[in-house]
Amino acid sequence: MSIIVLGTVALDSVKTPHGRRNNLLGGSAAHFAMSARFFNEVNLVAIVGEDFPRKHIDFLHKNGIILTSLIKSGGKTFRWSGEYKGDLNTALTLSTELGVLSFFKPKITDHQRKIENVFLANVDPEIQSHLLKSMHSPRLVGLDSMNYWIHNKRKALFKLLKLVDIYVANDQEARDLSGEHNLIKAARYLRGKGPRFIVIKKGEHGVLFYCDRFIFSYPAFPVEKVVDPTGAGDTFAGGFMGYLSVQKSISEKILKRAVIYGTILSSFNVEGFGLEKTSVLTKKAVNSRLNKFKKILAF
Asked: What is the maximum span of the chain, computed from C-alpha positions, in angstroms?
């Protein structure tokens, strides 16, 4: 009942009002894995270049992430540089270097092909489709994307949506892909494209969940000091998918709890740069914040 996540492992350089950090370990798969590991064994599928520091590989391994399918190739690691200003809700991308990601073809073991829980984190939808086709009868498949792929690989993304159970998007991505400004209409449109469950992340305004039988929305956990929002959405997805992956069945109650766990884990993520906070988290700290959130929600 482990999880396999496909995505990026990157070197991030980030500037926020609280400081600047260069060459942080980042990427969609890294942030997802650091969150999902609280619930399940996580197999990470990604590619890095020959410039990728050994200390980052050791760090992921130390935190229990299975790196059998992390490819190290000649060339440069995917790099992203960004800056946050004001309310820190939106990053200004300063530079993106695809490096080895431009020719990435996932390779997994026969054992990993049988993993039942699959998450396709943000990467080219054609790469995501390549991995999904290699899996044997997955039980639960989640998908994330971003505006770049929505605008440049729209056809491939729509084709992929037909094959997944869960689509996770932020509010702007949901609007861009659906053409609907209202998020409930956007969610309904996206549901019509295939996924059973639509999860729309609204940053500091929380999460909207949509399926045929019910809709619900939760606020974000109130954080006093947001240091670096990079990877918060991937961290949310890791908590959400990680919790679902160990459940025998999926009900409204379980989906609500999955959203709450995703919300709690992402709230820790934004309190530090990169993986600073999520890498040292304990279950005790997570459950303590979960109980505080329950009191805020009054249930």
From this structure: 53
User: What backbone torsions phi and psi does residue 206 show, to the nearest 5 degrees?
Assistant: 95, -145
Nearest residue to 65 (alpha-carbon basis) of 35, 39, 40, 33 = 33
Read off the pLDDT of residues 51-79 as tens digits, 9 standing for 90 and up.
Answer: 999 999 999 999 999 999 999 999 999 99
Task: Judge contact between 245 and 1, C-beta under 8 A.
Answer: yes
Give tens-digit pLDDT for 237-278: 999 999 999 999 999 999 999 999 999 999 999 999 999 999
What are the structural domain ranges in the chain?
3-297
Report the alpha-carbon distance of residue 238 to residue 170 in Å, rounded: 15
Nearest to 223 by CA among 299, 295, 292: 292
- How many whole angstroms separate alpha carbon 213 and alpha carbon 191? 12
Q: Are strands 166-170 and 197-201 parallel, antiparallel or unpaired?
A: parallel
CATH of domain 3-297: 3.40.1190.20
Specify the 3-state DSSP secondary structure of 168.
Answer: strand
